Amino acid sequence: MISVILPTYNEAENIKTIIPMLNRLFIGEGINGEIIVVDDNSPDGTAVIAQELDKDYPVQVHVRRDDRGLSKAVIKGFELAKGDICVVMDADLSHPVEKIPEMLKPIINNKCDMVIGSRNISGGGCEEWPLSRRIISRFAGLMARGVTDLSDPTSGFMAIRKNTISDIKLDPLGWKIVLEVAVKANPRIKEIPIIFTDRMKGESKLNLKTYIDYVRHLWRLYSYCHKGFSQFVRFCLVGGSGTFIDTFVLVSLVELASFDPRLAAVFAFSTAVIWNYIFNRIWTFEKGRDIKTIHSFVLFIIICIIGLGIRIGVMHLLIMYANMGESPWYILASLLGIVAATIFNFLGSRYLVFSHYLLK
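The chain above was modelled as a monomer; its predicted structure follows.
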């Protein structure tokens, strides 16, 4: 059996068109299929119309009133699906219904586990898209290159063997369920060309929040695929805040107390290191809160002292050989030293300070 999942919100005009279209396809192609409409409690009566159609068509309607969203609606559709293969598509007629048999064939023949309709391969495209939207779509695709090599990672049209995702924890944010499945399930994927058509009826769901959710979703996927990536970014953010404190102390001591920049850096370091340890412990490294405080803090101090040596060494070289001892050049010398020390400090923190062997 094939299950076609239609996540909907305010698609009253389109739902009464696409359900008969899908049924005609089932009959014409000899497909044993069902249509699952997962509606997010649309105020325009989408669910009511779909429920009325279940008298004549193989339709199952589920209305969600809490924790709504397109991707989560699709996940609910997976749970309700009785078919061995699930097809996910938009209900606004933007995805070509006639392409479904082509998407099913390679999965049925065990050539792949997932087929994605792509606008960006030969034969694919978009009808009447303005240049701005094409640029945004391409840029969004480039942003995902670190987690997938799909030609169209923002596609919303897919067919997937259901047992491929049976043991996968899907936790998408926003509307890119296809990208979530492709990354986390790691299925054998085939892309086929489709012509994407803008909706004729109803209003587009694209807005600023949609784009923000996409970026947040990508962050999750990058963190999932590259375990150290999110830690390094957080480490740098903590380090950036520590750098502000460090630089404030440094400038205050040099400008107000006439300290030598290299000596002032020692006091600046002492202030910043405590700040950095606290926030790295509770935010950067997931198991930091379970680490023995005394042991980890001593190690953190040792790592940071070595990092300080690297920083002072870089500062010394720049002050001695690049004439950066005068205001404001010593600040730049300090920042360059911090960059060199940051890499060392992160590696030491991750693999020594907050490592598994210090757990209670």
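The longest strand covers residues 2-8.
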